[in-house]
Amino acid sequence: xxxxxxxxxxxxxxxxxxxxxxxxxxxxxxxxxxxxxxxxxxxxxxxxxxxxxxxxxxxxxxxxxxxxxxxxxxxxxxxxxxxxxxxxxxxxxxxxxxxxxxxxxxxxxxxxxxxxxxxxxxxxxxxxxxxxxxxxxxxxxxxxxxxxxxxxxxxxxxxxxxxxxxxxxxxxxxxxxxxxxxxxxxxxxxxxxxxxxxxxxxxxxxxxxxxxxxxxxxxxxxxxxxxxxxxxxxxxxxxxxxxxxxxxxxxxxxxxxxxxxxxxxxxxxxxxxxxxxxxxxxxxxxxxxxxxxxxxxxxxxxxxxxxxxxxxxxxxxxxxxxxxxxxxxxxxxxxxxxxxxxxxxxxx
Length: 348
Ligand SMILES: Nc1nc2c(ncn2[C@@H]2O[C@H](COP(=O)(O)OP(=O)(O)OP(=O)(O)O)[C@@H](O)[C@H]2O)c(=O)[nH]1
Ligand SMILES: [Mg+2]
Description:
The protein has 348 residues and is an alpha/beta fold. It is built from 13 helices and 10 strands. The chain has a 10-stranded mixed beta sheet with strand order 3-2-1-4-5-6-7-10-8-9, with helices on both faces. Strand 8 (237-242), helix 10 (248-255) and strand 9 (260-265) form a beta-alpha-beta unit. Helix 3 (60-81) crosses helix 4 (97-109), helix 5 packs across helix 11 (281-305) and helix 5 packs across helix 12. The protein binds guanosine-5'-triphosphate and magnesium ion.
């Protein structure tokens, strides 16, 4: 799949995860407003520092403006290095650079020729209110992009963050390697089926699990590194290489009945991807609640210190408090709008 899928890693967390994909032989471009963040990626082949960027100190708007001002060069850089038709943009939702730039880049890079998905991260509950404000704003933008492919949502509440990175990359790469590694006369999964699975709009999860029975796999699907899957919800595809003793019907009982399944036999670990899931509304509501609970304290602190830099975030939350995003079912992809329209939407 290395000639089919490439990665654009934005911000520090994006870089940390992108680096692991590059180690496995995938094409990765690292984009950052911070030269210091890029300097930590000593083995990276393609690094792009957005001119005039000095890091965005968790300011999403600063990141967006820098990307808009430099977008022609960013796009040329991506076009010259990435020939693959499917791109995953990797970014943390809780920071500045990746959170601000990630959704907008997905929107801008999607066209008739390219499918673009997301690999993003929800902050742990112990992280700051600002991280939570950023994450909520970031997801508010992400869920509005109808044409996004699969969106993998790592949840920093599900373990130590630096351990989530390799767990995700290993599981994702195992899934991508199914066509090469698992061949069976009982049925194969080909590259087109992997792509079809990853093109599905909505949340996706991947799992690699050593297991000799279905119960272990089902437990691992429920308790893993991703934002929790909503109960009783839609799933579009279940694509899996399963050891002989594990039945697809059992997975379906736990994950829901998909529109289609792609299945092969694995002689080793189970490798599974569920895609076309609803976004994790319940988890995102806990992000919202954390912000809402802190609102009074933030306003008090701001007026005490006369700082106004957080007001935008608070105003944003005031605006949406009357009408929070409901859990929408995935919609069919629409053709992307003109670049200028997309950019102005994110800067408003
Ligand atoms: N899972 C995981 N989370 C990370 C990692 N690095 C940072 N985070 C989380 O990502 C958020 C911060 O995002 P960063 O990527 O550091 O921020 P950035 O995009 O570089 O933005 P600025 O530095 O603010 O300009 C916080 O929620 C962190 O807990 C990582 O390697 N893995
Ligand atoms: Mg940074």
